[in-house]
Amino acid sequence: MTGTIDNPILNSPYEQPNRHYVIGPQGPTGEIKDGRRPSESFIPIAVSRKGKKGGDGSEQEGFDFDATHERREKNSLINDVRRDLERWRRDGQYAGVTPISRKLLQHWADPTRENRVIFAQREAAETAIFLTEVAGRQALYADWRKRLEPENEAHNNGLPRAALKMATGSGKTIVMAMLIAWQTLNKQYAPRDARFTNRFLIVAPGITIRDRLRVLLPEDSENYYDLRDLVPADLKGGLDSARIAITNYHSFLLKDAKEIKGVAKNTRLLLKGDRTEDPFKETPKAMVSRVLRDLGADKQQIMVLNDEAHHCYLARPIQTGEKRAKEEDEENEQAGVWFSGLQAIAKHVGIKQIWDLSATPFYLSGSGYNEGYIFPWTVSDFSLMDAIEAGIVKVPRTPVDDNADEDLVTYLRLWDYVGQLLPKRAAKDTVKDWLPPKELEGALRSLYRSYEKAYEHWERALKPYGETPPVFIVVCPNTVVSKLVYDWIAGEAIVEDGEVIAHKPGNLALFSNIIDGQPVARPFSILVDSAQLESGEALKDDFKNAAGLEIAKFKAEYRQRNPGADTDKLTDQDLLREVMNTVGKKGKLGADVRCVVSVSMLTEGWDANTVTHILGVRAFGSQLLCEQVVGRGLRRRNYATNEDGYFEPEYANVYGIPFQFISSDKPIVDPTPPKPSIEVRALEGREGLRISFPKLDGYRVELPDEDIWLDLDNAPVFEIGPNTVPTWVEMGGVVGKRELEEGDPTAYRPQQVAFALAKRILDEQFTTAGDRRPWLFPKLVKICQEWIEQRVELKGDYSLGYLMTITEARVLAAEQVWNAITRHVGNRRERLRPMINRFDPEGSTGDVDFVTRKRVVTAEKSEVSHVTLDGKDGNTWEQLLASELELNKNVHAYVKNDHLGFTIPYVHKGRSHSYVPDFLVRLVKNDESEVERTLIIEVSGSQKSPGPTQQKATTARDSWCVAVNNHGGFGRWGYIEMTDPHSFKVRIAEAIQALYDDAPIIGDPDLLDFNETRSDRSARGA
């Protein structure tokens, strides 16, 4: 029996897992092991063969897994790629990728974000980027793509597939959005780079998932790029070039021509004659044109994203003596339609890459491969156990013991007891007064008693916050059993002679659709199967009347998504599908549903996060099937972290599904209710308070060549000595010979160092936006030589080699030389110009619209409704500053810089960063002809995280403000830091007056040239 574990969550959801539970023959134990769990699969076997050699000679560790007689085998390719990936991401610089990819990767990994990207999502996207841009292109990393080629030849007829395995509920759709953003933005900035495309086909297994994937369209109101903050504000404009088609694989079926519809089969055969191809069915090429019509006529290849990709495969031919069930033949046929559709696209258009996403990228039974055999083109894995240990999903709890006089735990292996007692097909006559087998009724009542506790907790702790009730799901083997179980749970109509004479209540009170002898207006339980969806039988008129508001919302949304559609033609089937897809969603048709009885599995992609109880009434022969069924109920309700940065555990109690999950007999602790979420947005009617701002990529220097020289009066000494890094290291053990590492023996001449520094200054300061000035190099070399002679001090046995061997030292030295060049008093100063983002040049407060759980205060002098306060309990300094801004008569409008997209690019230690100051304040104009003036305010100290504060402030004032003020098209800008809350009122007044007076708050006067160029004439408001 599996050991009891108090709290299964070992890892932060946002960092790479660094601990895991050891799994024994009976499942997870209580033993915790440091390090990440290796990726492994469950392989069905008859006899265990341990220590089997893999194809590459590596050991395949394995042993029997008692629950379903399977062996665990480690996935060597995934583990190998994972090791390289960990090394590659370690320094946060993602060597070898494009600047756009690096910016995205660092944005996703940013630990200071409010809406953080969980590690499972980051790792999947990082894997795709690493394999595309780095593997095999950098000497440190092998070309893992070569390992995929033979697998794709053997299994996929050469289609370029790679699979990303992610546990249900860990965010596959978010990963798809990340991949689309990565490809599109790179294509936008480097149109000729063949590694990238902006044309995407997303394929889903059905219409439920297809409709949910609309969040991948940048123009959708609930798109994930905005909702999940997946793209930095200055890059969002580039998403407009993405061309995305979303379909379900059924669209790959070749359609009949209009002329042949209604023609008898024999007539059609006669017309076809001896031709091999059917002239009345569209060709594969025509099908491809139809499916891809939204992508335009561009000739570039497309990227395919397969959702739930375990439904797309090429089955092996049936072997002699092998038999397949009808259901298996149907699955193979459907998989073949999907697969052949992709083949046709590859042939007629071209596919750059196929990314398969699935929680279970395994071959299904009947495919010709062992059920559970992992797709050998899988390159990334965040397993269900990883997700449980990181708290990303609910913890499934299975029965571990009972007091029945049986060898098996009854409610764990329920099918063993009831499978032979349940009907396989419909009886000739209607079954009346059906009694479930005692073990099934016992399981239903036992799990329901547990549900009652969860329901009571919901009423007490969650209902006051508008949360929807917990959900109980039952998975049945066929439509006959599902109908019997549904009627037993929810009640039924008693019919005689074709008329309803009474209503019988269900046996589980909270799920009964019959109360006081009458059907409830809005059912608490629903039955989901294909026949039900076709007929819409469960939706009576009184239900539609009671749910009129939700139905009206659905019809309005349908109208928006399908312009010109007649919503009166929506069928009961459409509405029932909407009920099913919105279980647990506030204000939607399915919000009040408490019990769902389904045939086989619920639709994949079903994303209810309120499931707390699952009952499996069917056979489970593999871990694959167990995970697929239980996965329907593992999405978390609450994603708030505790003080340690971890999620609190949430649980789903599971009967009848013998998967080896973490077991626990501990009572469920009532979770704390989530903090209320607040919508922060630009308010209608406040457009007069709008603040606009430019979006900068950097700064461009216009510097007369003859005017650069060195001013050493204020240049600090650059010391190279023991306060830097060691030049030699001695290594030794407890015993034995020691070793001395004596450092780099090369003797570097001052001129060599001067050349290196000059090259860096030329590349960083004079080679921007294609403006190359190689003729400045000789003068820069002389300047660097002079700086080395007069400002570099060597201590002890240290030498100039430090500047050649340590990149950071060379960067700092180049910065000091450059600062000495640009601060020469009396020199004809360089003219600093802004490099404005060409795709998204301007932002404004009118674009703000997001939801937060941070503390907020309402704002009056702002187009944006609230000021969000940083920090765990809210930043009182920011709140105080906002109050002062509201009261100041010279403040026309202000805004907190949260989700605004206002950033200041700066460089620190040779690396590019983005600084996000706290507030923008637009001043009152004294007369209409006056230029617009905007003050940037940084609240320093209090709860701010440490960083290169001085570099940020200097760049903001003397680079950003100077460049924008010199441009002249955005008014006058100034920058100030607030460090003492007791002087906020005085400091604000001083800063405002300084901005009115064009004092140095707007930048170093020696760097400004807007008066010379009369840029005031073109300034806004002038």
Key features of this structure:
alpha/beta, 41 strands, six-stranded parallel sheet, 30% helix, single chain, 1022 residues, disordered C terminus
Write the layout of secondary structure elements.
Layout: E1 19-24, E2 27-34, E3 40-44, E4 52-53, E5 59-60, E6 64-65, E7 70-74, H1 76-89, H2 99-109, H3 119-134, H4 145-156, E8 161-166, H5 172-189, E9 199-204, H6 207-212, H7 224-227, E10 243-248, H8 265-272, H9 284-291, E11 302-307, H10 326-348, E12 351-358, E13 378-382, H11 384-389, E14 395-397, H12 414-418, H13 438-462, E15 471-476, H14 479-490, E16 491-496, E17 499-505, E18 514-515, E19 518-519, E20 525-528, H15 530-535, H16 541-546, H17 548-561, H18 572-581, E21 595-599, E22 611-616, H19 623-630, E23 651-655, E24 678-681, E25 692-694, E26 696-702, E27 718-720, E28 729-731, E29 739-741, H20 750-765, H21 777-791, E30 792-794, H22 801-805, H23 807-822, E31 831-836, E32 842-844, E33 849-852, E34 855-858, E35 866-869, H24 876-887, E36 891-896, E37 904-908, E38 911-915, E39 919-923, E40 933-939, H25 949-967, E41 972-978, H26 984-996
